[in-house]
Amino acid sequence: MIQIEYLPIVLTGIGIMASILYYASVLRNANKTQKMQLDTRQAQLFMQIYSVFASDEFFERAGIVVRTEFTDLDDFWENHYTSQHWTHWTWLNGLGILLKNGLVDLEMVYDMLGGFGPPRVWSKYRDVILDLRDRHQLPDMFSSFEYLAGEITRVMEERGMPSKWSWENDRFEM
User: Fold this and answer.
1) Strand partners, 165
2) Average pLDDT of the segment spanning 29-34
């Protein structure tokens, strides 16, 4: 039996334990809520990206970028360069920035774009973009686009899919 003089100590201990349990429960619920909010924000961001990707404007621009034929850098800059190219590269660069900083998930990006977009466009315009970097002395220009293309290529290779675009055959090859 507990002696009466120990009762305040026991009650204080019970109170402290109840407070700790209550605080742990509140903290666990706050963490769940915070994770749900983060997931919701990421889903919203992804849907904003997806809505651009699913737009007619994007597909028109992507078509122009993919169908542009040029023989060398001079031919491209003098006869074929349009703002559509810059806009498309910039969009892919922005997606690469989000990916690099963990704001979008690589698997989600891959599921959205597949291997079709970034690696294909990067392989076609790699020399053009490297030339831009040299001309403007900006060694990081479109580096996140390059990163995005590399990450998508890596996923394709991990899945045993062809990952190199052949412009001669108009398809991916191993």
Assistant:
1) 172
2) 87
pLDDT of the residue at 156:
87
What distance in Å separates the CA atoms of residue 152 and residue 135, rounded to the nearest whole number? 28
Supply the mean pLDDT for the chain: 88
Q: In this structure, what token pair is assigned to residue 132?
A: 């831009």
130 in Cβ contact with 146 (< 8 Å): no
d(CA 79, CA 3): 97
pTM confidence score:
0.76
Alpha-carbon 21 to chain mean position = 39
Cα dihedral across residues 124, 126, 132, 138: positive or negative: positive
- pLDDT of the residue at 79: 95
Q: Distance (Å, rounded) from C-alpha 137 to C-alpha 37?
A: 41
164 sits in which H/E element: strand 164-166
Number of Cβ within a 10 Å radius of residue 161: 13
At CA 102, angle to CA 52 and CA 97, rounded to 5? Answer: 55
Contacts of 126 (CB under 8 A, 6+ apart): 146
Q: Are 65 and 128 in contact, with CB atoms under 8 Å apart?
A: no
Question: Is pLDDT at 168 greater than 70 in this prediction?
Answer: no
